[in-house]
Design a protein that fits this description.
mainly alpha
Length: 76
Amino acid sequence: MIKTFTHETLLRYVYNELPAKEQQQVENALLHDAELAASCADLLLAQRALNGLSRTPSQRTTDALLQYSRTFLRKE
């Protein structure tokens, strides 16, 4: 029997969030379904690209936010 997997299931596989039994089912399907394996490879590449992004704002952005926030200071 051929089992189909949703995009969500593949994402959960890529992020290692599947129960062991379901992970094993996905891995078995990847061995026998080239299209599924290609989709999984695309998700892995996207994950790697996202992980490489900067997670902190630049100093310029921080300075601009601080400058903007100063416009709301109370003047007594």
